[in-house]
Amino acid sequence: MFVSQSFGGRRLKSNLFSIFEPNKLDMFKGLSQLDFSRKFQSDEDCYQYLVEHKWADGFKCVRCSCTNYYKGRTWYYRRCKQCMYDESATANTIFHDLKMSLLQAFQMMFRVSARTKGMSTVELGKEVGVQQKTAWFFKRKIQIAMQPVESNKLKTNVEMDESLVGGYSEGKPGRSLDEKEAVMVAVEILGDGKVGNVGLRHIEGFKKEDFEQAVDEMVDKEAKITTDDFPSWVALKGKMPNLETKKSEKGEGFKELHVQIMLVKMWLRGIHHKCSEKFLQGYLDEYAFRFNNRNQRYKIFDILVGKMMHLQPQPFTRNKRLCESNT
Ligand SMILES: [Zn+2]
Q1: For the segment 63-101, what is each residue's pLDDT rounded down to a tens digit?
Q2: How far is the CA of 62 from the centre of ligand 1 (A)?
Q3: Taking the CB of residue 114, how many other CB atoms lie within 10 A of it?
Q4: Which entry of 53, 139, 180, 212 is 20 to 30 Å from 191 by CA?
């Protein structure tokens, strides 16, 4: 029942990742820090990984599509035989022109994706040895790579509920309602009653238009949706024949869904003490990506690198205050 993640259209060579093989995994329950440190000890190890990743299906020049190449200016470059364009393993990827070493970028991706718990950029920066600001910018890119794609849409049986998160920050110990943000939580309920994938969407409010948009973005058209009888849902029933509403019975009717809502809130509050409205969706994407890949933790790093390789550079305003107030 799992929505499988693609490697951005590329298949990885299996011999590359012998250390990550499922049977070796049972010992680690995921790619451990030790596995990672053994595999990636230098920038060269990371370049090697990218080379094999980028040209896993063979070389194809980005300029002229020629498939023949010479050795390029160094071992991780390939020079097109036809147009002589010399392309590095990092060219046209998010790994080009990093503000840190490639190894540090890999270490950061490993920590964000494969660690049991997520990490704030304060912790990340300290562990990897870069400034918090540098960690902050790179983490935004990781979160963009973690955004769900069309094929990740929730299928078959989906339960949905709206919730409020946040309001923990700004140095105030309590929370106030007006600092909270609305989030739509969607959960796939499998045949055995267990949870499949989750979807999380920052929504503007609790109007039916907000709900409709969230359904559109997260749920497959063929899926059956069950919600409580909140008026905005009831108002959508005429428009959505696949929507069924029932009484929530104080959450009892949607047990798994409410467990998931609690987990998301705990995660946001525990790790990311500060998270502004503007970046909330990034954290939600991070949570959902990690959760939806929980049964393939040994591959989650590979999946993330695959997605990062296809990410175009994103402009972010370099604003110090922004970094400090969103960890
Ligand atoms: Zn060429």
Answers
A1: 999 999 999 999 999 999 999 999 999 998 889 888 899
A2: 7
A3: 21
A4: 212
